[in-house]
Design goal:
The structure is a single chain. Helices cover 81% and strands 0% of the residues. By secondary structure, the chain is mostly helical. The chain folds into 2 domains: 110 residues, no CATH class; 126 residues, no CATH class. The chain is flat, with a radius of gyration of 27 Å.
């Protein structure tokens, strides 16, 4: 009983001291908007620990991959600071779980099992959040890849009808209204950039960088190489690219279907054994009688 109480006291006192002494240093980071962070007011002590232990220098590959994923999900601007905030969020959840485990250990029926469970969850939570981030990035990339052929078809039709590329992209984006889709969200930003004075080439290059998908890079490269020529060559190049992207869309859809079917295997096996037990148990009991 005394040991979990001491650990809980040390965790609480350490957080309070660091928050009072170092909280103002990281006040500017807490003002950054990042969707999904719920405990930003508690981040200061953990941000100090990340700086103190130089986590970026000690784990460069891990931090680079995490920053790359956060750039895709939350934009390139302030991506380094947002990566630190996400790491601090991980540590905050681990700290809270460990603290709850110490408190549960004070319950007589739970005992030291509460502390052990808290330690296990505190270690597992950062890995779970790291995996969840990459799952969201993968889902976003798949959504962009699935929607890109549809967008390209609209652009081909509009350019073939005599529209310029810029107007064709604007019309395609406006036809989606306020639809919340990663591809159209980034296209709206690109359209806003070239309407606000950026060149069409700069806007598309930034759009490709924000998406971070190879097929989008191929799309923007094809557009930039051919849009100045116009005419049939440009439309033909887009149609060839459209055919390639439709094939990739089919491959992605097929892979998602296989994943969905594989996820159903375990519930089906569980249902099968449940039915076998429900049917077999009465028969087995009758045989014993």
């Amino acid at each position: 009983m005394l040991f979990p109480l001491m650990i809980g006291g040390v965790l609480s006192a350490g957080w309070i001291v660091l928050d009072r002494t170092r909280g103002k240093t990281y006040k500017h980071l807490r003002k950054l908007h990042m969707e999904g962070l719920r405990l930003k007011k508690m981040h200061a002590p953990f941000l100090f620990m990340l700086d103190k232990f130089e986590i970026g220098r000690r784990l460069p590959v891990l931090m680079f991959r995490m920053q790359h994923a956060i750039q895709k999900m939350h934009g390139i601007q302030h991506s380094g600071e947002k990566t630190l905030l996400y790491c601090a969020e991980m540590l905050t959840y681990s700290w809270l779980v460990l603290l709850v485990g110490c408190l549960l250990s004070l319950v007589r029926e739970v005992g030291t099992g509460g502390l052990a469970g808290g330690v296990v969850l505190a270690i597992a939570l950062p890995f779970a959040m790291y995996k969840d981030l990459y799952t969201k990035v993968k889902r976003r990339d798949q959504d962009i890849l699935i929607e890109l052929p549809e967008l390209l078809n609209r652009i081909v039709l509009l350019v073939g009808a005599g529209e310029t590329v810029q107007r064709a992209i604007n019309h395609s984006v406006n036809s989606q209204g306020e639809r919340n889709h990663p591809l159209y969200n980034e296209l709206r930003r690109a359209a806003g950039d070239w309407n606000n004075g950026y060149s069409f080439q700069q806007s598309l290059e930034q759009f490709s960088r924000r998406c971070g998908v190879q097929e989008v890079t191929i799309f923007t490269t094809t557009v930039l190489l051919n849009f100045r020529r116009g005419g049939g060559d440009f439309v033909l190049a887009l149609r060839d690219l459209s055919h390639v992207l439709w094939e990739k869309r089919k491959a992605v859809s097929r892979a998602k279907g296989e994943q969905a079917s594989s996820k159903l295997v375990f519930p089906m096996v569980l249902i099968f054994f449940t039915i076998v037990i429900m049917i077999g148990a009465p028969a087995f009991m009758m045989m014993n009688m």
